[in-house]
Specification:
- By secondary structure, the protein is an alpha/beta fold.
- The protein contains 8 helices and 5 strands, in the order E-H-E-H-H-H-E-H-E-H-H-E-H.
- The chain has a 5-stranded parallel beta sheet, with helices on both faces.
- Helix 2 packs across helix 4, helix 3 crosses helix 4 and helix 4 packs parallel to helix 5.
- The radius of gyration is 15 Å and the shape is globular.
- 42% of the residues are buried.
- It binds shikimate-3-phosphate.
- Shikimate-3-phosphate (S3P) binds next to loops.
């Protein structure tokens, strides 16, 4: 089945919570597919000339989400097929979900909150939402709040708990092949 309804999906999009491996796996997939890799957090930071943490601290989350919406739209509009890694909260916006699903094959990298907490480490690797409390509890809450959105936007799901990045990239590319069939 085509993801766009009028041809094979153009972009490969990876979504999931913080620590799911979107950046690592996205970059691996891009290398294997010989496609450019785009991370929406990097696009936002480049546009704002500030880090994501600085944008959250100085302008607040709503301002970040607005920049993120623009980054998602810009990435989706690329005429070249990309691999796009979306910041974990991008799927909360219905307009983002619609754009990603229309222009890409969307794969949800799913992991248990405890596994995600281990991956992001005690300091949350500079992620503002994880600085708001114990990473494990924040990720449990976000998992409960967001799972339906990930499920809704995704054409496929890859469970990453027991896999290393290479195995996840293999599974994601297999899903892309199915999307494009
Ligand atoms: C966020 C995830 C982060 C970043 C921002 C907010 C979220 O991206 O966009 O800190 O709401 O889950 P990663 O998922 O790439 O860490």
């Amino acid at each position: 089945m085509s993801a766009t309804g009028d041809g094979p999906a153009r972009h490969l999009v990876v979504v999931g919570l913080m620590g799911a491996g979107k950046t690592t796996v996205g970059a691996l997939c891009a290398e294997r597919l010989r496609r450019p890799f785009v991370d929406t957090d990097d696009l936002v930071a480049a546009t704002a000339h500030r880090s994501v943490a600085e944008i959250f601290a100085e302008d607040g989350e709503a301002a970040f989400r607005e920049l993120e919406r623009r980054a998602v739209a810009d990435a989706c509009a690329s005429p070249d097929p990309l691999v796009i890694a979306c910041g974990g909260g991008a799927v909360l916006d219905p307009e983002n979900r619609r754009a990603l699903r229309t222009h890409g094959c969307v794969v949800w990298l799913r992991a248990a909150p405890q596994v995600l907490a281990e991956r992001v480490g005690a300091d949350g690797s500079g992620r503002p939402l994880l600085a708001r409390g114990d990473a494990s509890s924040v990720l449990e809450r976000l998992d409960a709040e967001r799972s339906a959105a990930y499920e809704g936007v995704a054409h496929a799901t890859v469970d990453t708990d027991q896999k290393d990045a290479d195995a996840v990239a293999d599974a994601v590319i297999e899903e892309l092949t199915r999307c494009a069939a």
